[in-house]
Specification:
alpha/beta, Histone, subunit A, single chain, about 300 residues, Rossmann fold, 6-stranded parallel beta sheet
Length: about 300
């Protein structure tokens, strides 16, 4: 195989977008986004979508290509991304994949486990349960039905908890029993680059980014999305906190502090996910671009030998 997928991962606000654009220029190739929050056309500021200038510097795929009202799963993304990569590799032997959504990166590089179909009635029932009793009720139900998944899943991620529960209920088996842990062979080589920094630096960058989002108009962006608040796409950091402010439950300063706190927690979970992957070569966020390029070329050459 001569085609190489360059994967750029790391915690939020670490500089993945900038590096991916620089590498796209170096290798004269396109970028595929694996940031699930940036898929939605109505969400721009709170998801840190690349700026118009950045989008003009390199062609991006899967940026704001669907609506928050669309049903779009990680399985849909896996299929669409692989089809896109197949087309891009016909024109260039390199493509850059970038994102902080570990599950979506893994969907492209490793493949997904396949789960049984679930009745829409089960989803509806779980959604009503969540609306009436909150996330704690779903967490406790998952703890009973699948202790293994309960111990591993992000219990604050409503979508993940509900997804595990609907499989447990629909199949009568634990969600974890469908996890094979076996990677699928892809028809291209994969070089993984991770960006990191000291925790204090990451947290400071996150705090600064949130302040910038507020100045750029995050409140107005979220206000326009109030009619869609119940959608899964909007149950995410930066939006759910502002909803609380807009509905009079929190004051603005507290909502902003919660965004910063929850984003820092999200970054910690991202690093925990990525640290498990031994294939990632880690670079400091203030990396020397030449050293990153050299590593990619060297590794890509070794794959071909």
């Amino acid at each position: 195989m001569t085609n190489t997928l360059i994967v750029i991962i790391g915690p939020t606000a670490i500089g993945k977008t900038s590096l991916s654009i620089e590498l796209a220029k170096q290798f004269h190739c396109k970028i595929v986004s694996a940031d699930s929050r940036q898929f939605y056309k109505e969400m721009y500021i709170g998801t840190a979508v690349p700026s118009n200038d950045e989008l003009q510097q390199a062609k991006h795929h899967f940026i704001q290509h669907i609506s928050v009202q669309d049903s779009y799963s990680v399985g849909d993304f896996e299929k669409d991304a692989l089809n896109t990569l197949n087309k891009l590799f016909k024109k260039n032997k390199y493509v850059v994949l970038v994102g902080g959504s570990g599950l979506y990166v893994d969907a492209v590089t490793k493949g997904l486990d396949h789960f049984p179909e679930v009745s829409e009635d089960i989803r509806t029932t779980l959604r009503k349960q969540y609306d009436k009793e909150g996330i704690e009720s779903l967490q406790q139900q998952l703890k009973v039905l699948d202790p293994t998944t309960y111990a591993k899943v992000d219990l604050q991620n409503t979508h993940r908890v509900m997804r595990a529960l609907e499989i447990c209920i629909g199949s009568g088996k634990p969600y974890s029993s469908f996890i094979t842990k076996s990677s699928k062979k892809r028809p291209f080589n994969i070089v993984k680059i991770g960006l990191t920094a000291e925790r204090e630096i990451i947290y400071n960058r996150i705090n600064d980014r949130v302040d910038i989002m507020i100045k750029e108009g995050l409140l107005d962006e979220v206000k326009n999305l109030l009619p869609f608040r119940s959608l899964n796409a909007l149950n995410t950091v930066g939006y759910k906190e502002i909803f609380e402010f807009l509905e009079g439950n929190w004051d603005l300063d507290f909502a902003i502090s919660e965004i910063k706190k929850n984003t820092r927690r999200f970054a910690k979970r991202q690093l925990t996910w990525f640290r498990k992957d031994q294939e990632i070569e880690w670079f400091d966020y203030q990396h020397n671009l030449d050293s990153v390029v050299s590593y990619i070329k060297k590794t890509a050459t070794e794959y071909q030998q």
